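Hey, I'm writing a tutorial for new members on how sequence and structure tokens pair up, and I'd like a real worked example in the thread rather than a made-up one. If someone can provide the structure for the chain below, I'll link this post from the tutorial.
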Amino acid sequence: MKVFHNLRKLVRGSYWEGAFCSLMVGSTESFALYFALKSGISYSELGLLSTMPIVLGSFCQWLIPQFIRDQDARRWKLICYGIQILGIIALIQATQSNNPSFWLFPGLSLYWIGGMSSGPLWLQWISNEVPSKIFSNFFSKRNAVLSMITVLAYLATSFFLSGGGDLHRFFIAFIIGGVARILGLVTQAWISRPSVSATQHPHFQAQFSAGKRDSGIRHINPDKIPIVEIFLFTIFFKIASNISSPFFMPLMVRELHYSLLEFTLITSIPFVGRFMFLSNWGRSVDGMKPFIGLTIAGFGISVIPALWVTFPIYGFLLSLETISGMLWGGFELCCLMVVRMKYGSKSMRPIALHMALMNLGATLGARLGGHLLESGWGFSKTFYLSSFMRFLVTSLFLLRISSIPLTFQSVKSYREFLSTVLTIRPSMLNLGRINWLRRRRSRKI
């Protein structure tokens, strides 16, 4: 059937587009600030580079979708990709300049403005193309595969940059990222063509409108979903998390004195956790279960900073970071699914606002954590505070949703949810099934 053939083509294309994006992240985004530090910029300039471009990106992430009609999301998504490419070109120029800081700030600003603004536009487009019944399954499997591609690109670039020589190795790495982004733009333009899009066909909608595996979205009154509580929880959780999150790198380098190999391995291992378990999160978030997922992930993430400074044993921390990747992947997926449950196909602007507020919260938390460290608190006190604040915010969220009949869940529901997420074997088997639409012997339409 042509309808299902077109959707299969769209899904395959989305994997290729995501793979190119992952290659860009692993070769360019992950090393831009590292290049800035190696090029000799001051700590004040480094602080500006690590915060202000993300603030600008967060603002544009909220602003741009306010002026875009839903049907124009496809075109503007490609424009945002182009803006991000301009940012990478500026980063490439920085590697050849005698004054890298002149190019780094506009480069990172354009990179984050284009990248962050394209996020809600891409989600709006893919939400209209993939039926709600299989969206969480598709989205989680895609992200799991892309996480593994990101870590492979990150590891390859790390070993390449550690091979000695001058800063011109960054030039090659950033060139690879720019080419990958261009290929991603071309792929996205191809799969966004009307001839590929087929999910609005009435026969296609009928095929996915019934069945036991429905996501449950149609059976829930969107007006009763406590979206304000979700927004407040995730924003304050980001603030609490980023009191410590940006400072794991200096902890590893300055306090624990990790070698380059140890540092590279432990910073890449969270992507393995996402890869192994994210498809299970997708199978677990039907109906109101994203609220269960947010609570479990919130409590799990809360203990991570405290465990880092309490048990700084390398083997233990490797296992802990694998769990961290699993929990953060589930947290992000559950946030997205709740917003989709509330707003359906009209979720572009709410998602943009939610992402922008979370990024601003992350910036605020990072500033607070930096101030505490500069005031002499040290890593231990700062990390313990971050854990306590994460736990407090999650506890308040659990108390709130437990008082709402729609989102109340029994202890058994939490236990069953966690059991599904932690089932490793189905995760590994399901990851290979990228083309989850079977060929159907149906009459032509």
